Amino acid sequence: MNDAASNSNGVPLCILDDVPDGGGLEARAEVVVLRRGDSAWAYRNVCPHFSIPLNYEPNTFWAYGGELLMCAHHSAMFRFEDGVCVDGPCLGARLTPVPIRTEGRRIFADE
Ligand code: FES
């Protein structure tokens, strides 16, 4: 396993266990990492409705059942798996994915 400080496999985001299971973590500015068990997804922390962060309070994300992330502003609901809005004012819009890779429990942005 590569060391996070010296790896050549992307920008270190976080450790999987730092992300609440079934919730989200603001891993870097404008990146939210979502987790369900050992699976993780990352998106730009920008709601497609008004192009503002999905959270209202720092590093506080509203998630339901480990399946849906809710924007704190007007309650748009986005699927963890693909970032598609399945309910709310921007129905059908999509969060911008941030490609990630994992090494053990470490998550890197593949950028
Ligand atoms: S800004 Fe996210 S639903 Fe309106």
TrEMBL record:
Keyword presence, Iron-sulfur: yes
Keywords: 2Fe-2S, Iron, Iron-sulfur, Metal-binding
Domain Rieske: 11-109
PROSITE patterns, per the entry: RIESKE
Cross-referenced Pfam families: Rieske
PANTHER family: PTHR40261, RIESKE DOMAIN-CONTAINING PROTEIN
Protein name: Nitrite reductase/ring-hydroxylating ferredoxin subunit
Organism whose genome encodes this protein: Caballeronia udeis
